[in-house]
Amino acid sequence: METIEERIKYKIEEVERKNDVRVIYACESGSRAWGFASPDSDYDVRFVYVRHPAEYMRLDKTRDVIEHELNDVFDINGWDLQKLLRLLMKSNPTIFEWASSPIVYAERTEFARLRNLLPLYFSEKRSIFHYFSMMRNNLRSYFQSDSVALKKYLYALRPLLSCRWILEKHSPPPTSFSALRSETLPRIFDGDVDALLERKKNANEAERGRRIPRLDEFIGSECERLISVIETIPQRQNPGWKALNGAFFETIASAFAPS
């Protein structure tokens, strides 16, 4: 019987055939990559692809996203290399999350070389703003009653702990929640989070539970602390476009080079 990983790898090959592109990287994102999927969680597959070199010379604009499949089981879409590198110039946190996913379905040497560029374009300030906004939006949207969807605690804790990681380690936070919490969550909360993870893994996505006062207090106090320090983080200059342009030209030439 075909495994889910084999089905996903087949679908990645299908993306290449149907769109005449090369997929240089494919990974899991979302709850399965974070490590707290529910039984009914779908598979959020993300990939980076390269078009034929001549396609980048066209005058008419082409789409830089491929949306391959969306249903109850699979959510499969990807970005053109050009889009990825333009967003890397802005230190888009999604790129760093994809690159550190613990579940990788495909990786060509072209993407392995691109990994060397990532630390040069990481912005602590932009990343913390991103994760802080994500945490605050979760609090405003889902923590206004006595009960809350269980997964929302984890969806608030993940960006909060990501902010703590960036402030302490000055590097992109890991995608794996286990790796993230082991370095950033005070041990006093381990029991609460372990219980949340266990319930999340055995419940459906919509299951609700009572609020957890200890975690509420921790999240609230950390939110106040971050507000006071977030503006003081300096904006570091990245190396500019030259390195990205070089990586772009090298990758599109390599991806379609004769075997």
From TrEMBL:
<protein>
    <submittedName>
        <fullName>Nucleotidyltransferase, predicted</fullName>
    </submittedName>
</protein>
<dbReference type="GO" id="GO:0016740">
    <property type="term" value="F:transferase activity"/>
</dbReference>
<dbReference type="Pfam" id="PF10127">
    <property type="entry name" value="RlaP"/>
</dbReference>
<dbReference type="InterPro" id="IPR018775">
    <property type="entry name" value="RlaP"/>
</dbReference>
<keyword id="KW-0808">Transferase</keyword>
<dbReference type="InterPro" id="IPR043519">
    <property type="entry name" value="NT_sf"/>
</dbReference>
